[in-house]
Amino acid sequence: RLEEFLKKEVDLELSTLPDFQERVIDVSEVEQLMNSINTVPAPCAPVINPQAPNAATGTSLRVCWGLFSDDTVECYQLCYTPVSNERHSDEPAEHTLKVKETYCTITDLLPNTQYEFWVSALNASGISPPSERAVYVTAPSPPTIKNKKIRSCENAALVCWESRDINPVDSYTVEL
Description:
The chain is mainly beta. The chain has helices at about 1-5, 30-40, and strands at about 45-50, 60-65, 75-80, 95-100, 105, 115-125, 125, 135, 145, 150, 155-160, 160. The strands form four sheets. Strands 3, 4, 6, 7 and 8 form a five-stranded antiparallel sheet that branches. Pfam families: fn3.
């Protein structure tokens, strides 16, 4: 019987069409959740270090900072401005540098001048809040010896010099 049944052609046409409900599934919440899993959060604010001894010359400063979290950082944005009551018209009020490391040596600065520094961390998600501000000072420029005022005798010498710095210098060291 089975063999005979399989030899027959069977008409599978349905007399009535099935009635399906069209459902629209909202997956936006799932997409947001999946995207948030793959997103790196914006970094926390870095911490700028105070000026280290011997980190300055008359025209340069070495500035260091740290990031005390496991944040992913692509680069840092270091900003600085001279601390002064009077502005030079040709000098911009604020300078910004992009830095890959957690330190930077800034050159072409004025001698015996205070500079205020702050830093932010950047990654694909955005920029961190800025660090606290730190004040660094460049070393004074060397004084000019007044050759015409030098006097000496058997047991003493008088040497006069003048400072080229606008800000007062704390002390001088005279070497013989």
